[in-house]
Amino acid sequence: MQRVIERILNLLAFLLTASRPVTADEIRHTVAGYEQEGDEAFRRTFERDKDLLRRLGIPLHLAFTDR
């Protein structure tokens, strides 16, 4: 549980200091705690973390881009 709390705090700090929208890839490679080896593991963890932030009342604004 401590690792989850630390990762969530790292994510929140990163998002609050970002001066622009950031991609999931940027988060994966910048925020401590997202070092999972596979893409699917990162996606599952990141989705759970976003859900947790929402349940805590922290608004997240998502934007989808064409690649």
Based on the model shown, name its key terms.
about 70 residues; 3 helices; globular
List the topology elements.
Blueprint: H1 2-17, H2 24-30, H3 39-55
Q: What would you note in describing this structure?
A:
The mean pLDDT is 92. It is globular and about 35 Å long. With 67 residues, it is mostly helical. The chain contains 3 helices and no strands. It has helices spanning 2-17, 24-30, 39-55. The protein is 60% helix and 0% strand.
Tally the beta strands: 0
What about the largest sheet? Answer: none
Cα end-to-end separation: 35 Å
Low-confidence stretches: none
Average pLDDT value?
92
* Count of helix runs: 3
Strand content: under 5%
Summarize, please.
Helix content is 60%, strand content 0%. The chain is built from 3 helices and no strands.
